[in-house]
């Protein structure tokens, strides 16, 4: 019957809902970005003006051209750059990030061992940052040009300006050496065994195993480095959320909500805060990515064996597989966080769902 009906009356497939189409587009863009990250990571790593083969060998062996050339052949560094890239890309598609030139351990396995530590530290820091940053920013905007506003802005400026490594060193000296208010460095006390590994996050794994002493100890070790790492993000979120709330507080729909006689709490959280939330989410996502990838100094001060320390060791020893592996993981983290932020946009902002 459909074949005999006029073309204009034939049944057509229902189009995808706007939100589903939005998600598919973002997935396609994310896949292209990941491919771009592999290209950029590979090219930048291989443009380093040094010979990885000589970095692997000792001083005496590095002075022997025959040994250096043989090492380059073993590593595949004697092949054209385009051949090296496609070999690298083929290995990536199989989940192989290569083998560390220094430790001879698979890079993927090493990253899987250290990445949960960075995730745990980053989650602790971003949780503190979001709670305090949004509260301080909202209060500062609602108390605009008052003593409270000036005090909060001064505190946020200090958090942004103070160097993280200096804050970490001072905080560790004061709260551990002087006050003994927090435990020492590391993720656990030396006499405690890590909980059975499920996620790699000691607090979560200890809870899952019912090991309450280990959970309390891991949480106590997490508090100070999370606070130190969150200070910059708190200052950033405070200033940004204040600005975002001020942009919304004078809009017509907020004025109309107040004119209706709605309770102040409903106006603040249902209208002002929700309207200011979309740009704030963007900053939170970027801040979380930077916390995961930029915690090298904090991890060093607190002996937190995470991704930052692993990347630093690989960079100082010119370990190309490690450098490329960490760069790829960090790039994927940023792309994944941006994808999640885009999804959250679709649920918070109705305009995204209908476009």
Automatic annotation (TrEMBL):
Q: Which keywords annotate this record?
A: Cell membrane, Membrane, Transmembrane, Transmembrane helix, Transport
Q: Where is the ABC transmembrane type-1 domain?
A: 115-345
Q: Does the keyword Cytoplasm apply?
A: no
Localization? Cell membrane
Question: Which GO CC terms are listed, alphabetically?
Answer: plasma membrane
UniProt xrefs under PROSITE patterns: ABC_TM1
Pfam families cross-referenced by the UniProt entry = BPD_transp_1 (PF00528), BPD_transp_1_N (PF19300)
The record lists the membrane-crossing segments as: 21-44, 121-142, 154-177, 214-237, 268-292, 322-348
Question: Main site of residence?
Answer: membrane
Give a yes or no for keyword Transport in this entry.
yes
SUPFAM superfamilies with a match to the protein in the record: MetI-like
For this chain's UniProt record, which GO biological process terms are given?
Answer: transmembrane transport
Membrane topology field: Multi-pass membrane protein
Family label: Belongs to the binding-protein-dependent transport system permease family.
The molecule here is called ABC transporter permease subunit
**Organism listed in the record:** Brevibacterium rongguiense
């Amino acid at each position: 019957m459909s074949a005999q009906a006029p073309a204009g009356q034939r049944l057509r497939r229902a189009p995808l809902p706007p939100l589903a189409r939005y998600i598919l587009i973002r997935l396609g863009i994310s896949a292209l970005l990941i491919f771009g990250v592999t290209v950029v990571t590979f090219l930048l790593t291989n443009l380093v003006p040094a010979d990885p083969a000589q970095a692997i060998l000792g001083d005496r062996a590095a002075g022997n051209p025959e040994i250096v050339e043989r090492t380059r052949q073993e590593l595949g560094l004697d092949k054209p750059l385009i051949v090296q890239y496609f070999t690298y890309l083929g290995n990536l598609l199989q989940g192989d990030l290569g083998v560390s030139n220094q430790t001879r351990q698979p890079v993927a396995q090493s990253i899987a061992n250290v990445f949960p530590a960075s995730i745990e530290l980053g989650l602790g820091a971003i949780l503190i940052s979001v709670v305090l940053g949004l509260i301080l920013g909202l209060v500062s905007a609602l108390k605009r040009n008052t003593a409270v506003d000036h005090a909060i802005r001064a505190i946020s400026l200090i958090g942004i300006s103070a160097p993280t490594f200096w804050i970490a060193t001072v905080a560790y000296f004061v709260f551990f050496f002087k006050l003994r208010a927090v435990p020492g460095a590391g993720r656990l006390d030396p006499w405690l065994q890590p909980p059975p590994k499920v996620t790699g996050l000691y607090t979560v794994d200890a809870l899952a195993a019912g090991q309450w002493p280990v959970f309390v100890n891991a949480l106590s070790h997490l508090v100070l480095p999370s606070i130190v790492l969150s200070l910059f993000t708190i200052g950033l979120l405070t200033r940004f959320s204040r600005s975002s709330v001020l942009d919304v507080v004078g809009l017509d729909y907020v004025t109309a909500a107040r004119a209706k006689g709605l309770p102040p709490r409903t106006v603040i959280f249902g209208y002002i805060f929700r309207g200011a939330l979309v740009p704030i989410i963007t900053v939170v996502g970027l801040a979380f990515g930077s916390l995961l990838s930029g915690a090298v100094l904090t991890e060093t001060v607190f002996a937190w064996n995470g991704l930052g320390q692993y990347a630093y060791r690989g960079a100082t020893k010119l370990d190309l597989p490690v450098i490329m592996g960490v760069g790829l993981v960090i790039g994927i983290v940023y792309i994944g966080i941006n994808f999640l932020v885009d999804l959250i946009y679709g649920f918070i902002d109705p305009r995204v769902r209908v476009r």
